[in-house]
Specification:
By secondary structure, the chain is α/β, with parallel strands linked by helices. The protein has helices at about 15-30, 35-50, 60-70, 85-95, 115-125, 140-150, 205-215, 235-265, 295-305, 335-340, 355-370; strands at about 55, 80, 100-105, 130, 155-160, 165-170, 170, 180-185, 195-200, 220, 225, 270-275, 280, 290, 330-335, 345. It is about 40% helix and about 15% strand.
């Protein structure tokens, strides 16, 4: 049996029928922008994430740019970010006119290296930073990071594209963030039927600014207080997400169980380690992450291909090594760990409602041929 890296077609029994009926209802009434579906979604997001304000937008990358601009980031400002992340984190900084400085990651939790970050803040006199919660968990030193930024008056934007459903120290990982973002790209644990995103905050000034900028900077229909752009979430995406939300707890449980199964069964292999969320986290099961011994990953890739097992490499390169970063990057703190991890990480299939047979087959191939 062939097992894909991700399968988005594992719907609940009544899901597609309800979605088709919802499309019919919205189409008959031509309700495509605004309205109760978006209001319901934003209310659910705020409640789930423990924040006062949730503002839907067109996609996760726009969410980052809205958050940065709401925080006051503009042309010439230095913004620190992890060297190991998705390109959208880097490009969002450049697209608001700011200057990115990359900071290496810890080899233990694969998240931003706090000690290097502290030094980079001082060296670059940074007033803004982004942290990314990768792989369905976050930094072991997140509380320290937040406290440090508060003391040094560094505005910290938290990229939570991969973190919906993650809890940290008993609370949603978003709850204690000054401002954070979500991506609803279909492959996420809480995925839409296309592109969509959201910005979360309990700061009313940030929220008002974000909502305005996502709608052309409006203060009224034909009055404008900011130069914004069109980043409105559409009603179809909100409606789809509202349907998914009804099943989200079960989907998260399925993903977490699969992630725990991999860690239990693959804990004794010699050619790799199975990355584990730091203490204090409940993961969302977004990704399994294997960190291979140097030089071992290429053979693993071929073996998985030969046995019909899908896999992903998230991510295959550091931000500071990308061709496009050269002309715009303002500095880097470390980078060797990010580069090293990029050559060694590999993720096994993990998605909602994987069957026991599928999980057993993946584990059997990995234990017998890669362990």
């Amino acid at each position: 049996m062939t097992i894909p890296f991700i399968d988005l077609k594992r719907f609940e029994p009544d899901f597609l029928d309800r979605w088709i009926e919802k499309i019919r209802e919205l189409s008959v009434n031509t309700r495509f922008m605004g309205g109760p579906e978006i209001e319901q979604l934003e209310k659910s997001l705020a409640q789930d994430c423990g924040v006062s304000h949730a503002i839907g937008c067109a996609n996760g990358t726009d969410a980052l740019q809205l958050a940065l601009r709401a925080a006051g980031v503009g042309p010439g400002d230095v913004v620190l970010l992890p060297d190991f992340t998705f390109w959208a984190t880097f490009e969002a900084i450049v697209n608001v006119g700011a200057r990115p400085v990359t900071v290496d990651v810890s080899p233990d939790d694969l998240q931003l290296d706090f000690d290097l970050f502290v030094r980079a803040v001082e060296e670059h006199k940074a007033r803004f930073a982004m942290v990314v919660h990768l792989y369905g968990w976050g930094s072991a030193r997140l509380a320290q990071l937040r406290q440090f930024c508060k003391e040094k008056k560094v505005t910290l934007v938290e990229d939570g594209a991969q973190a919906y459903g993650v809890s940290y120290q008993g609370r949603s990982i978003y709850q204690d963030a000054e401002i954070s973002t979500i991506s609803f790209y279909p492959a996420k644990v809480f995925g839409a039927a296309g592109d969509a995103g959201a910005v979360l905050t309990s700061n009313p000034e940030f929220a008002a600014r974000i909502r305005s900028m996502a709608n052309h900077g409006r203060s009224d229909h034909y009055s404008y207080q900011y130069v914004g752009w069109n980043s409105r979430i559409d009603t179809l995406q909100a409606a789809y997400l509202n349907l998914v939300h009804e099943h989200l707890d079960r989907r998260l449980e399925s993903r977490r169980n699969a992630a725990a199964f991999y860690r239990e069964k693959l804990s004794d292999c010699n050619s790799f380690r199975c990355a584990t969320p730091p203490d204090g986290y409940v993961e969302n099961g977004y990704l399994n992450v294997l960190v291979f011994e140097p030089g071992k990953r290429a053979d693993a890739e071929q073996t998985l291909k030969d046995n019909g097992i899908g896999f992903g490499i998230v991510y295959p390169g550091a931000m500071s090594d990308q061709e496009a970063s050269g002309p715009v990057i303002a500095g880097r703190a470390g980078g060797d760990v990010a580069r090293d991890m990029a050559s060694r990480v590999l993720s096994l299939p993990l998605f909602a409602y994987m069957t026991e047979d599928e999980l057993e087959q993946v584990v059997s191939v990995v234990q017998n041929k890669l362990g």
